[in-house]
Amino acid sequence: MLLEGSCHCGAVRFSVHSAHPQPFNLCYCSICRKTAGGGFVINLGGDSETLEATGRDSITAYRVERHDEVTGESQRAIVTAISAAVAVQPRGYGH
Fold first, then answer.
1. What CATH number is attached to the domain comprising 79?
2. Which of 42, 53, 67, 68 is most buried, taking the most CB atoms under 10 A from its CB?
3. Residue 19 near residue 32, CB atoms below 8 Å
4. pLDDT score recorded for residue 29
5. Which of 48, 35, 39, 26 is nearest to 76 (CA)?
6. Does residue 49 form part of some domain?
7. How many domains are there within the chain?
């Protein structure tokens, strides 16, 4: 399934393929709640090898270190102009 989207202001657009018929999940972890300012976030699951994005110059990274066997270190991509999170990437994003 091809997923396509953008941030609210349109500065960042993306597409990514997902093998899942319903590639959405709710996350209630403390990091997601605090960075989103709400009780949960909705995440998309996709194959990072197929990710295509425009507007990367509009993105700032926020690095989150969480020392557990499930999460490890991750990086949140934030659209600077509107403070909207557009991605959570595993360790090594952008390398």
1. 2.170.150.70
2. 53
3. no
4. 81
5. 35
6. yes
7. 1
Sign of the dihedral defined by the CA atoms of residues 82, 85, 91, 95, in that order = negative
Whole-angstrom CA distances from 55 to 4, 47, 70, 86 are 14, 20, 30, 11
State the amino acid at position 81 in one-letter form: A
Q: Is residue 28 part of a domain?
A: yes
The two tokens of residue 27 are 């996350």
What is the mean pLDDT of the segment spanning 89-95?
44
pTM over 0.90: no
According to DSSP, the residues that pair with 84 across neighbouring strands are: 79
- Does residue 7 sit within a domain? yes
Residues of the domain holding 29: 2-90
